Amino acid sequence: MTAEPLSSTARQTSPGLARWWRRLDHPLGLTGIIVIAVVVRLLLAPHFGFYGDLRYFREWAGRLQERGLRHFYAPDYFADYPPGYLYVLAFLGKIQQSPGYQLLKLPILIGDLALAWCTALLAARLAPESVRRRLPIRPIVLVAVLFNPAVLGVGAVWGQVDSVPSSMVMGTLLLLLTGRRSVARDLSGMVLFAVALAIKPQAGFLAPVLAYILIRRYVVDTPAAQRLVGAARLALITVVSGSIWAFSGVPFGLSPSGLVNFLRSSAKTYPVTSANAFNFWGLFGFFKRDSDNYWNGQFEVVKVFGIKANTFGTIIVGLGAIALVWAAHRAITHGCNQARTLIATAVATNLLAYTMLTRMHERYMFPVIACLGPLLMWRWFRAAYWTLSILFVLNLWYPFALYNGQWDASGRVGRVYGLTIQPWFRWFFGNIDAVDTGQKKLWSFLVVVVTVAFVGVYYRWLLRPQLPRVWARQMLAPGRSDSVPDRGRPVPPAPERAAARDATGNNEQTASEPDTELPPAPLARTAIAALHRVRTAIPLPGAEKPAPSGWLRHGPRSLVALACTFGLLALRGELRSARTLNDSTFHLQMIRWASGQLERGRLPLDGWFPDLTLGSSFFHHYQSLPYTVTAILGRILHMSVSSMYLWILYLLVSLWPISVYWGGRLMGWGRWAASAAALVSPLIVSIPSYGYEHGSYTFQGWGVYTQLWGMWLLPLTWGLMSRAIRLGRGYPLAALALALTIATHLMTGYLAVLCLPVLGLLTNKQFGARVRRTALLGAGGLLTAAWVLVPLLTDKKYSAQSTFYKGTLYNDSYGAKVILGWLFRGALYDGRHLPVITILAAVGFVVCALHLGQERARIVLGLWTLSLLLYFGRVTWKSMINVLPGSEDLQMHRFIIGVQMAGILLAGIGTVALARLVVQGATAVWDRYGSAGSPTPAAKNSIPSLVSATAVVVLGAIALSPSWRNTWDYDRGGWAFINQQRDYDRIDGPDVSALLQVANNRGDGRVYAGTRGNWGPSYKVGFVPVLHYTSHNDTDGVGFTFRTVQSLTTDIEASFDENNLSQYEMLNVRYIIAPTSRVPAVPHTVVQTLGGSTLYAIETTGYFQVVDRVGSISANRVDINDATAAFRGSDQASRSVYPGIAFDGDKPLPDTVTAATDSPPGTVINQSNQRADGIFEATVSAQRQSVVVLKATYDPGWRVTVDGESANTVMMAPSIVGVEVGPGQHTIRFSYRSYPHYPWLFLLGALALLSLGLWPRREQVLVYAQRAARRFRPRPGR
């Protein structure tokens, strides 16, 4: 076996420690270990215990004493334990009718000692002779078992009996796998197993391994002439041991069939995914219904791929057990040690059952730990033993603390220790009262990871056994041509065979033969050879020569040029300007505001953006760099905002293949693979959209302009980060690329940061150096982006979290079931046409999987897998997604960008792989049929290349034609929409714009044109709703919702009630523009009618209002809409009565009036504003202590002066800013102050980049610094 034995540790053990262990390896020392273990248990037993279980044990012992075995079970009495352990409780009941904790735990103590002794004995017999000579196995394993926190936790602390059946299972393995073979010995072992099964049905997880042992021993390995006798012996063992289990319930009135029915009924006690067990089903949620059985009023059954959880888990465990036993059989047949192999198989089978079966309790992992004990001398199994022990203790801790804490809090049972040690418990498990928390799902995920890792190590252990030293010498001997030794079973010399029999009592290959393991079995060798041939036939792209000769060297660049030319031609209609109907409307408004700030001499890093959602400090809550850069370029080139925007959009979309190509090259892929990825990049289209496809950006699409910048940067960022981590240089450029990605599109930047571990840690060399480089690059990139991240995080609590997005695809994505359905139907890469790109990506996936030894293959698969898992979103991962920082603000459906970007790279790899196969085929055909007619030797070399190239081009054009056609038709269809909208803008647009300009000229209130949730989308100019026109005309509007989603007024605006006059007052909605046929339901006057539209005026006090503060509302960024709903539904705003807001735990402010009054608190004499500069001024007259509110969203950046003196701002309902004033006339000035620390943050970023640049040369810099210090050091005497 290839697992490293304990001897590696023994070589490092100090002589003194080794001698100390040696002293323990005799009766007195072993007795001392056992005595100490007993004392520890006796000290723990009286004070701790899981009250629920021990209460039942005590009640059952008393009931057994009172009523006897026959009448213990009753239809109206709860007892879900099978009869096995009830015999023990009956005996304890005879000693004491209501046993205490010490007496109840006495059998557990005995079970612990028996388990430790059997494990130590079995480990000593399994250990190679060389290890036994160097280390005393028995005391080491005794200590590892008896003082394992998992063993102490489940027994002495909890009070459960798992060690009792586990000790019997260990005795079964000891009897069956060691010692001299005999029917009596095997029968004794199976009788022990039957008793263990009668105590705990979970012992049945070992049944496949035991069945294999007996069938192999009495049938397979028995000579043909004696197989009938062997079968009879097998039947005898089976019948006797099976009868002991089947008839164990007879004294209790349970026939064998009654026992089976009882076990079925007990299994239905908790028909749930996971009963507090951290396993695969914990990822889906704890105590979720797993089948059609009723559970706690739940209707939804957890399903995987449409299969009920209970059925799915059973199928996986059944198939897995068969696969594990078959692998063990093949390994044993070809020379692996039988005892070690079967014990490892027992561990794998138990662990698979615990991980994948539903209805598991937290304690059911214990048999796994018990079976790992005999394998502690191997490094990987030793690591698994302690890892699973730690996870097991953590798993025990949660229900122990939860339920004991509930019993203790009830006050009915005396003092019960729950061990809820805070804050540690909260850090490890989250809220104790929450059924599903992210921390518990994280532990479940770790158990799944350990299971997968263990099964992987197990298979590697079986399929790649260590070559004997003698064979290695023979294979390396001169003149030897065989790649593997002869497959005959080696026969050790007679003395070694005798030693083997002395150790184990049988002639099978044993643990005392450390050098008799065979090389890979023929089947494994054949599979490896076949895999090698496939890898050779389909090499990983990237191995081509640095500069292909001849015309081929222009091929990759030609593919990139072709993809760019296609985009430039297909998208040229996007350069025609028209009113937009998607997010482009909002982006254009941002750019116009940024351009205005530049015109005023200010760099638009922050400021008050006034025209959407009652205004917001949008630029420091959002990815504003693309707006600023676009505005700067427009001013430099003297182009209008609209023209500059369209040209940048056109060029970035069309020329994106260049970024894909260079990103692929930087990640280590060859010219052809990178250029093939660039070729397919413009052809991506998906059903869910929002990915890296033309429909995300064009006029008829979504218009996500900032994502377009992130799309251009992500391939380059991946490539630069990968190169920096791989080579240890180029940190500044990689960190700058990461920072720019964050600054241009936060979701793309977030994905890039999450991808850092994939880029840095999927390596098989220089792992420590890679970890340091990854951490250095990540820290440098985040520090460089500090000017974006620090203001964002500082004011996070004032950034709204919309309740309208909760539970929608925007926040939660679609879930694995839907996304995998799209993936396998081709809908993520090809939309609804022939799945060409999907097939190419699948081929690329297979090619990378075949070459997992290559780092670049692992990286692209890792990027794709990580992105896909993130794209599954909250629908799949539920609360487990909360482990991601800021996950509550992530739009999970946007992670399709990573799936598509990595898929494009895979498609490029698949294209090259298929092209190579075509070239090989064409060359073979030419060599066979066409070379004879070649006129010259030169032609014989050039013609096959020409034929191959022609074949690739023709087949590639045919294969990609559906994708080319689909993208071309879509883009050209956008031209028609743009031309039609231009006609509408020319005919009907001026009337709407003129009405909006009237409101703009007055500048005293906001304009309402419906919302996106009522009649707003149906009131259009051509294709564009008029509520978009308010944004196009830079009108201060209400109704163009969910644009500046960071504003605290986001949900309040979306909930606007157009029939409530008070809401017009509190939001200063002074105008309504609507179809002439639609008359407002509130009092109004007609301002003007043009064409089919009318502008109405509503009476309000303007942007300012003098109000009384009465009452206080507690709210935060999540619930502010719901918290203020009652106020917004009332008429208080019309009566100048507003409650204050105690925001995010702030103390409520006192009322400004103590008694109700009908007189107004004051009036606004005059007011003015410079909205674009964030300045609002008013002169007010206050009759009493009152609050002057500015009907703009509250933000900590607001500053206010009252009569020239600074004052404190307050938050008022629904989410606006105000200032408290006394009686009299006052001059009020509100102004927004931008975030003040940008210079320091830019300096921090610059220093981070400088440090990254100097880091690889730190030794040289240190030398130069020392020389400089010596040069300027003053000389003595001067």
Automatic annotation (TrEMBL):
Pfam families: YfhO. Keywords: Membrane, Transmembrane, Transmembrane helix. The chain crosses the membrane at residues 28-50, 108-127, 139-158, 191-215, 235-255, 267-287, 307-327, 339-357, 385-403, 442-463, 644-663, 669-690, 702-721, 733-762, 774-794, 833-852, 859-877, 897-919, 1238-1255. Residues 479-520 are annotated as: Disordered. Coiled coil: none annotated. Residues 504-513 have a biased composition (Polar residues). This is Unannotated protein. It comes from freshwater metagenome.
